[in-house]
Structure formats: structure tokens, C-alpha cells
Amino acid sequence: MATGVLPARRPLPARLLRQALRVFNAAATPYGVDRYVELVRPSWSSNEIRAKVVRVERSTPRSVTLTLRPNGNWAGFQAGQYTQLSVEIDGVRHTRCYSMANAAVGPGRLIELSVTAHPEGRVSQHLRQAARMGQTVGLSAAQGAFTLPECEPPRLLLISGGSGITPVMSMLRTRCARDWTNPVTFLHYALREADMLYRDELEALAATAANVRLVRVFTEEPGRGDLDGFLTAAHLEATEPGWAEAEAFVCGPAPLMDSARELFARVGRDDHLHTEAFTLAQFTAEAGNVDGTVRFGASEIGVASDGRPLLIQAEAAGLAPLSGCRMGICHTCTRRLCAGVVRDAVTGDLTNGPDVNIRICVSVPVGDVEIDL
Ligand SMILES: Cc1cc2nc3c(=O)[nH]c(=O)nc-3n(C[C@H](O)[C@H](O)[C@H](O)COP(=O)(O)OP(=O)(O)OC[C@H]3O[C@@H](n4cnc5c(N)ncnc54)[C@H](O)[C@@H]3O)c2cc1C
Ligand code: FES
User: Over the stretch 277-289, which tens digit does the pLDDT of each residue have?
Assistant: First the structure.
């Protein structure tokens, strides 16, 4: 069983050595001192955040929970935030966002990520199958505005679906670590009971902690959980009669979040609803805008556009551009639009070249385009 609050380990000599390395880094040309130190200790770096995998747990059939010990460049996180994890697969570095699931109790602590494997997913499948203790991964600084408030709300409502449990689990664990006592209700939707991450811990917590209520819904196993079906007003009433007064945090598949938005808007409480999406809403290419050629200028590759975002078209063409969230929030995939027009898949806004920076994960070509890639 993964634990919520994890012990500190950030020895003083390590920090002093890291500062000294920063000073020597410039002198150690052409590679920098990191290239030499990492031969001995891969998680060391004078300026990059790297982490060593110190525990690997596969508690459900489709997930893997990793406990990581970040190096001293990690500055901590707030409950609900995510990091961009980088891992090498067959010699290519891939980056994806994962939300911290443990309590946020200050810098220098261990962190916990729970990754659910998607059937065709490159990174999630790799981590589920191959993550091992002692492995080193790259991290970004913690990011995201989906965070637990600093002051305790009178009522807290946490709603999650599937892998979306991680940021709200961190919020619940942080609430407990801070000894908050106001009521909190945790409503979780999983396909099946066996798929539910943190089930034992949540059930034990709900049985013992004051004012913690757990409601479990297993959408493919009616009758097995506390409620059946998908999120409705009736579910909220049954779960938390004071739901309209609560500060609510929701993370999960798009239909779950759409329902939550509609229900909170209906009672005029949309400003008390906070949401986090793990994926871009399914994009459908607009008829008439699919024609055209995508030219990846730096690679001298040209392909007929299929109407999908440029990141996906580049990957399909055999290129490996940097990416992180793949939904327009982290800016890792930013490249220069050398010529042509693209449409933002989220907002629908058009951007005209030449020479403007675009996020290729959410940019769909409109006619012929050229990208500096
Ligand atoms: C802010 C943020 C926090 C996140 N936190 C977590 C977390 O804590 N735990 C976790 O497991 N994941 C989390 N994710 C999702 C994660 O970043 C990856 O998208 C996911 O692991 C799939 O990556 P992949 O490389 O395996 O799939 P890819 O190879 O990128 O995609 C393969 C296929 O799976 C589909 N797909 C990709 N992601 C999803 C998804 N989330 N749901 C449904 N279909 C998908 C794609 O459309 C594609 O068809 C988070 C994402 C964001 C943006
Ligand atoms: S990959 Fe994050 S903005 Fe494109």
C-alpha cells in the first residue's frame, strides 16, 4: 500500500556539492560537469531535476505507482499539481505529465506518481511494464493551477474518474496531513472495483477519519459500489446533500467534467468548481480544411495533411518533436510556424505565419503550412 506522507531526505552535503557543481559546470566544456557526474550517479545534475525510482508498485491490473526521490533541484509542489516526467524509450526521450498523488508537505520530499496504462499509450505502457527501482527519470518543476486552497474550505468535494484520482488523492492526503476537520466527500468513478487506485487506503480512511466520506461507483459493475451509473444531480444529492455549498475539485474523463460543469452552472456555483483535464477533448477535423501539405522545413519532409494536430502528424512522419502535456498547457512543443495558417484546436483561433511561435500539439493546419521542425 502506498503511503500519503513520505519522509524527507535531502542531506546538506548534497546541496553544497550541487552548488559547487554549478560553478564548475561552465568550466567543464564542451559537455559540462553533469555528463561526468551522471556516469557515477545518474540522478545528479547541477541544474536539471532528475529523480531516482525508489519504489514500484503495481496495485491494479492497469496501473503502476512510482515513488521517486528527486534531486535537490526539486522545489516541492502544491496538492493538485503535476510534473512533466521524461523517460527514454528505445533511445528516444518522451515526456508526459503526471500529477503528484502524495501529500504536499514541503520541498525535498519523496513524490508519488500513479500512471494508468492506456491500450495504445507509449509512455504509460512502458512505465507499467518496465519501470524498475533504481531507474533515473527526468522531471520538470511542479506546474498547474488546480490546487488545494491554503485555507480550509467549510466543505470540500473531490470527484474523480479513472486515472484522474491522483491530484484529488493528493488533496485529500494533504487535507489529512494538515489536520483539517471540516467535511470532505470523495466521489470516485472507476470502471471496475479492481481498477480503483488507492481503494484500500481510501476505505480505511473513510472508516476511521472524522468527516471523511467515500462514495465509490463502478460503472461496469452495477450493484457493487455505493451508487450506479454516471454523475448526475441525483448522485450529488445522494453523495453530499450540501454539494452546492462545497468547494469542488474534479478530474477525470471529459464527460464527467462536462456533467460537473453543467450541474454547478445550473445552481450558479460554477466559480466554486475547479477542473483538471488529462487529455485534449477529441478533435474533429473541419471539412474543407484538411487539404494541404505539411512541410517540416528543417527535416526536409513533406506530407499530405490529414487534419490532425501538427505534433501527431510530425510523429506519424517519423519525427520525434519534444512534447509534454500534448494539450496546449506546458509549451514544451512550441515551434516556429514558417508559413501558412493554423487553427487552435481548443479555441478555434487562427494564427497566420510567417515566423510566429505555435504549440504544435494544439495547432491544426489550414491549407499548406511549413513548420521549423
Ligand atoms: C496535467 C496532466 C496530469 C496528468 N496526470 C496523470 C496521472 O496522474 N496519471 C496518469 O495516468 N495520467 C496522467 N496524465 C495523462 C498522461 O500525461 C498521458 O497522457 C497518459 O499517460 C498517456 O500517455 P501515453 O504516452 O501512454 O499515450 P500516447 O502514446 O500519448 O497516446 C496513445 C493514445 O491514448 C490516448 N490517450 C492519451 N492520454 C489519454 C488519457 N489520459 N485518457 C484517454 N486516452 C488517452 C491518445 O489519444 C492516443 O490515442 C496527465 C495529463 C495531464 C495533462
Ligand atoms: S506539449 Fe504541452 S503545450 Fe504542447
Answer: 898 765 555 544 5
Strand order across the 63-70 sheet: 92-99, 82-89, 136-139, 49-57, 63-70, 111-116
Cross-strand bridge partners of residue 161 = 189
Q: Please give the C-alpha separations between residue 262 and each of 23, 100, 168, 248, 305, in angstroms, as whole numbers.
A: 54, 28, 20, 13, 36
Kindly give the distance from the C-alpha atom of residue 362 to the centroid of ligand 2, in angstroms, as a whole number. 8
Spatial contact of 98 and 141, defined as CB atoms under 8 Å apart: no
- The maximal CA–CA distance of the chain, rounded, in angstroms, is 66
Of all protein residues, the one whose alpha carbon is nearest to atom 13 of ligand 1 is 98
State pTM to two decimals.
Answer: 0.85
Q: Which domains does the chain have, with CATH numbers?
A: 47-139 (2.40.30.10), 156-276 (3.40.50.80), 293-371 (3.10.20.30)
> 96 CB contacts (<8 Å, ≥6 apart)?
84, 85, 123, 124, 324, 325, 326
pLDDT digits (tens, 9 = 90+) for 33-46: 555 556 556 666 76
Report the atom number in ligand 2 closest to the C-alpha of 361.
Answer: 4
Ligand nearest to the CA of 328: 2
Ligand 1 pocket, residue 85 CB under 6 Å: no
